Structure formats: structure tokens, C-alpha cells
Amino acid sequence: MRLAVVYSRASLGIQAPLVTVETHLSAGLPGFTIVGLPETAVKESKDRVRSAILNSQFDFPSRRITINLAPADLPKEGGRFDLPIALGILAASQQIPCNALHTYEFVGELALSGKLHAIHGTLPVALASRKANRTLVLPLQNAEEAALPGDNHILAATHLLDVSAHLIQKIPLNSYVRQNPSVTESTAAQLDLAEVKGQMHAKRALEITAAGGHGLLMMGPPGTGKTMLASRLPSILPPLSLDEALEVIAIHSVSRNHQPRLPFGQRPFRAPHHTASASALVGGGSYPRPGEVSLAHNGVLFLDELPEFDRRVLEVLREPLESGTILISRATRQTEFPARFQLVAAMNPCPCGYLGDLKRRCQCTLDQIKRYRSRLSGPLLDRIDMQVEVPALPIETLSFSHTLPEENSDVVLKRVISAVERQHARALKQNARLTNREIQQYCVLEPKTHQFVTQAIEKLGLSARSYHRILKLARTIADLEGSDTVNHEHIIEALSFRKIEQLSGPK
């Protein structure tokens, strides 16, 4: 009997559990069987592997071949197991040595010619193989992404023959090293906040949003700059840490969307259309894939025309907004994806859009306005920290000859980074993520200020959750000013950013 063992990795969310590919050649009628819960693409690999071995000038054994993908209860999908299966057959038939295979992990899809094709979800595989202290062998197209951690051992190949030549120590593969291993590889010019004229209150809200990691809802007539403001939020967000950048790339790596890879170190900005389904937002599928809330992890999820989204779709955002994760359950498995994003949304004040506009008259009745706003549930609004109006501006303000200078994104970013550093020094996190116990510890109010905010909460009919969010907003405002304490002025400004709840009146 001849047995060979090759190590590979499966894809489960953003995890890459170890898969042991066991190959057994036995006497009997020639056959090729794959066991271990393979899906269709894995079952079809036997035809790709057979052709790749023959076209690479190896002998395909005329024996009974059994491939076991262990553990047997872990579903296996995709073409990533082609390369380890082919190497297992070559090792079991003694065409390549078996003794060195235990120090490697292999992933890659084979063409009929033996050429290696790229796979999805490379970064989780690279991180897992680094932790296991094994060398990862994979297609050249995936090597750049796999080398992002910087301290793992990567061997890139273009053909089955290249891998075989390395294993028999004839032509060794060179270790792959990234050309630009810096955290921020994107040099594309970002949109600048100075391009937005006026709207000082909304810009202030955007700065607080960036500094504290808060959510933001902007309401105003069409053309007042809501989308312009939202699209410029990434330009004032603090830079990603290395671990955060790796998380972002890992999620995009397993998503299987065909968009260009997000530059390493760049915060994602996702803006799904209002016709998106619940599955598109939170993820799904028989083999769960991340949705928009996960693709926006460590970045921004922008929902334009918020009331036009189906209400049932919006309600699925409530859990990830609180927990920062999304759990997708299926009959055979559960997959968890990270989903800690900043929600930024925009909406019109009424169905026609011109309520409060200085030049155009609103044609909506009070009942129409009420029905329009009721598309957003109270629990969802409760979870959005800041709610501000973005009014229409006079044409003089929008004129390019307007002499008042606008702050650019670099100036605002310096203040944001300073505030974020204060938060991390105090609680190791941004203020939006403070727990109730941490709020009591870091957002202490003077007796008069506490009495004032209590009266304001009762008068406006706000919930306990809104109360805590107001305290976290005030803490961020204090951090932007460099203040160690939260005072009366910080609370007043924080209350001014709950505009929609104030317009709605007591509940």
C-alpha cells in the first residue's frame, strides 16, 4: 500500500482551517474517488488533476486512488485542492519524494495543461500557514496578497512542474517578497473636504464622526452636498493599523467579487444601491459570503436615499451596528464575519425633497411626510449617533469667488488623529465602542450638567441608548478640544446632533 499526506487549507468565513489531503493507492480496478464532504467543484478536480499530471509528462497510476480530505465534517469547495491532490498522487506513486511534504502547505487550481490558476481567500490561508510555521506554496497570481503580512515564507509557482522540480530539489523556487511592504500602498488622490462650500455644521458633524467612530445621518433637500460630504469622510479618517489592514484585505479576498483588489491600507467605502436585498447587505449563500456590512469593515457604509431601502432590509443592520459582527446561520454551518463599520446615511426631508428649501415649495402633505419618515424605525434611528440637517445654501456661498477659506482634509485629519490617540491612550478604543461601564468611567458629568442632560432627555423623549450615545458624542467633542473632562458646552453641542429625534418630538 502507498500513502501520501499533503497539507492544504479550506475557506470558512475569513478563517482557513487545516485540511489534510490523504492519498492512498491500492490494488484493484483503476478508479478515482474523493471523500471528505467535497462539493461539485472539488469532485470535478479529479478530471483536472488527471489531465494536468499527464500533460506535465508524469505517469498517472493505473491503480485504485482514494483521496480523503480531512476533517470529513468540514465542507470543501472550490478548486484550491487541485494542487495538493496532484502532489499527493505523485508522492504516493513515488514520482516525487514524500519526506519533505510535511513542512509545506499547498493551494492552487490546476489547468488541464498543469498551469496554476489563482484562487480566492489567499490572505487567510497565508496567515494560518504562518501561524502553523509552514511554507506556503501557491500560484504566482496570489503571491502578492499572501505576502502582505511580511514575515511569512511564500513560494510562488506558475506550473505543476515548478512545484515538482522544487520538491525533488532540482530547481528550487525562490521566496516571494513584496516590492512595497508599506501599510499604505495607495497613492491615489483622495477627495478633499475643502471642495465642499459652506455647510459648517455638517462638516463639524463629519469631523466628530471620524474622530469617535460614530454613525451619521444627514437630512436635507437634493443637491445640498450630502453625498459630497459622505464621499470625503475617508479623507479624514485615521490610518489603519497593520492588523486592521490585514482584516480588510482578508474579507475582500474571500468575497469573490470581481472588483479590483482594495489597495492595502485603504479604508473601504461601500455605497450599495437602495434596491439591495438583505442578503446583499449582511451576506449569505449556501457557502456564506460577506455582504456590504462586512466589506465595509474598518471603513464606511454609505446608504444614500435611506428611506428608499426596504424597511426589512434596514432592520438587519441593527445587530451588526451594536455587535460589530454578523453571524450567518445555515443548516449545516454557522459563519461569522466582522462588521465594524461607520454607517453614514443621507435622506430627503420629505417625498418631494423640498421641505425647508428656500427656493422651491414643498408639495407634500403632513401625512405624506409622516409616512415617509416612518420608513425608518425608532430602534434604527436610536443606533445612529448623529442626525443633522444639511440645508440648501445661498448661491453666494457656493460661488467660486467666495473669499472665506475652507479647511482642507489634511488640517482636519491632524485634529482627528490627535483625538483618536487620546481615546486609545485612555480606553484602547474609539468612543463609539465604549461600553456602559466605560461611559460611567470616562464621561463623568458635573451635577448641574447631569441635571441638564437628564431634563433634555426627558423633554425630547429620547431613549436610554440615545442618552449613552449623547455622552459618547460629548466625550469625542471634548477629545477634539483636548479636554480631559466633559463639560456643559460639550453636552449642548452633542444634543444639537440629534436633530431628527428633536423634530419628531417626544415618543
Give a brief outline of the structure.
The protein has 507 residues and is of the alpha/beta class.
Write the layout of secondary structure elements.
Blueprint: E1 2-9, E2 18-26, E3 31-35, H1 40-43, H2 45-55, E4 64-70, H3 82-92, E5 104-106, E6 109-110, E7 116-117, H4 122-131, E8 135-139, H5 143-146, E9 154-157, H6 160-167, H7 200-212, E10 216-219, H8 226-231, H9 242-254, E11 269-270, H10 278-282, E12 283-284, E13 289-290, H11 292-295, E14 300-303, H12 311-315, H13 318-323, E15 325-329, E16 334-338, E17 342-347, H14 366-373, H15 378-382, E18 386-389, H16 395-398, H17 409-427, H18 436-442, H19 447-460, H20 464-481, H21 488-495, H22 499-504
Helix pairs in contact: 2-3, 7-17, 17-20, 19-21, 20-21
List keywords for this structure.
Rossmann fold, four-stranded mixed β-sheet, alpha/beta, five-stranded parallel β-sheet, Ribosomal Protein S5, domain 2, 507 residues
**Structural category:** alpha/beta
Helix amount: 25-40%
**Total DSSP E strands:** 18
Strand ordering within the main sheet: 11-14-17-10-18
CATH superfamily of the largest domain: P-loop containing nucleotide triphosphate hydrolases
How far is the first residue's CA from the last residue's CA? 76 Å
Descriptive report:
Helix 7 packs parallel to helix 17 and helix 17 packs across helix 20. The longest helix is centred in the last third of the chain and has 19 residues. The strands form six sheets. The chain has a five-stranded parallel sheet with strand order 11-14-17-10-18. It has a four-stranded mixed sheet with strand order 1-2-4-3. A three-stranded parallel sheet has the order 5-8-9. It has two domains: 166 residues, Ribosomal Protein S5, domain 2 (2-Layer Sandwich), CATH 3.30.230.10; 312 residues, Rossmann fold, CATH 3.40.50.300. With 507 residues, it is α/β, with parallel strands linked by helices. The termini are far apart. The C terminus is likely disordered.
